[in-house]
Amino acid sequence: MTETTAHEHRVTSEVGRLRTVILHRPGAELKRLTPRNSDKLLFDAIPWVGRAQEEHDAFAEALRSRDVEVLYITELLQDALEYEGAREQAITDVTADPRLGDQLRRVLEGYLRDQDPERLAHTLIAGLAHEELKSGHGLAYRLMDRLDFIVDPLPGLLFTRDNSTWIGDRVAVTSLAMEARRRESALTGLIYAHHPRFAGVDPVYTADLEHLEGGDVLLLCPGVIAVGTGERTTPAGVERLARQVIGAGLAHTVLAVPIAQERATMHLDTVCTMVDVDTVVMYPPLAHSLTAYKVTLEGGDLRVSGPHPFLEAAAEAMSLDRLKVIDTGLDPVTAEREQWDDGNNTLAVAPRLCVAYERNIETNAQLEASGIEVIRISGSELGTGRGGPRCMSCPVYRA
User: Fold this and answer.
1) Other CB atoms closer than 10 Å to residue 247's CB: what's the count?
2) Which residues have CB under 8 Å from 241's CB, separation 6+?
């Protein structure tokens, strides 16, 4: 079991010194991806799993070399599953799938109850194929293809930013929009509810609420949060988050930022991330076209104003004269290629220090020309699920 000594949990900005982060090392769930199911599981290509693991290990080591504590989802889940309440909740969550029918549900429930915490964690993440459950029976089981999944794998768990995000000393366990990823929040919610490291943590958002994903949530500065609304986060989700965080005293202003409902711009952090307390790197075509609606809470009611130009609204809310933008100066084709390759999806380790994929040569050069130190990592295989360093990380503590 992980030690139960007190730990800090607090994130109030995108660029404070990163101290603790949650990652998920890709594993057997990626080996489940085939040309037949990759679209459904939200991957644009079939990754070379061994290379993806090497790239992820290098990412984790780059963080450790900067004195960042790295926690892994799998290890946290195994620890949590030592507790009977967590085991019962995990089994209940996964057997609630209406596809199963009563007979297969009973067989699956018995199968899962026989597993130790390590094996159960593996099954919950990697999934369970029809041909692996030899004891299965009933009509639902008989009519499945042998390669169908009784428990779907979770390759998207690689992107730990989306299923939970910390706001101050509270965690938002998010409500994921895509069916293939919804069980991720059940697992992270279980970890926060049962792992001793997070004892006493009170969620500020839960997975049963309106759709909201962590990749859309940017903590611009203490008290100011920008939330993208588009393919994954609904306007109702932004509204709910605003009410929750402002009501809890975690923020005074939420900026709702509409973004295109497209795969290439699925989250706000695919087009904009922070690299300093007053500086963002942005996809050039959107730098001066993004708008924002200012959301505040007055007398128990939400007040919405706008739209305003995003950069102006953000600067005003942050009490800055202006928000600096790294002007990548890219030609349109290079800009589009590097945005698709997560060039704007950087992870700040500290002010003016960020992690980025090495392949985005032009964007990285412009960051460095602007005085931002770039820690380059390889991501040729990690990026097949459309996510960069920020997507692959859930900061738990920033000093």
Assistant:
1) 12
2) 172, 205, 212, 217, 225, 227, 254
Structure tokens at 223: 């008290």
CB atoms within 10 A of CB 301: 8
Q: What is the pLDDT of residue 300?
A: 85
Q: β-strand 373-377 against 353-357: which pairing, if any?
A: parallel
pLDDT mean across residues, the chain: 90
Instruction: Name the active-site residue from 221, 272, 391, 394.
Output: 391
Q: Find out whether 280 and 274 touch, Cβ atoms under 8 Å.
A: yes
Q: What residues contact 307, with CB distance under 8 A and at least 6 apart?
A: 258, 291, 292, 293
Cα–Cα dist 307/246, whole Å: 20
For residue 379, which of 393, 359, 349 has the smallest C-alpha distance? 359
For residue 259 the two structure tokens come to: 């973004």
> Residue 77 — very low, low, confident or very high, per pLDDT cuts 50/70/90?
very high
Which amino acid makes up residue 33? L
Question: 377 has which bridge partners?
Answer: 357
Tokens of 108: 């699956």
What pLDDT is attached to residue 297?
94
Q: Which two tokens stand for residue 167?
A: 């706001």
Start-to-end CA distance of the chain, whole Å, equals: 26
Q: Which amino acid is at 98?
A: P
Per-residue pLDDT reduced to its tens digit, 347-364 = 999 999 999 999 888 889
> Among this protein's residues, is 391 annotated catalytic?
yes
Beta strands in 267-383 (DSSP E): 272-276, 279-282, 291-298, 301-309, 324-326, 347-350, 353-357, 373-377
Specify the length of the chain in residues. Answer: 399
Joined together, the tokens standing for residue 272 give: 């904009």
Count CB atoms within 10 A of the CB of residue 20. Answer: 22
Rounded to 10°, the helix 73-80/182-194 angle is 60
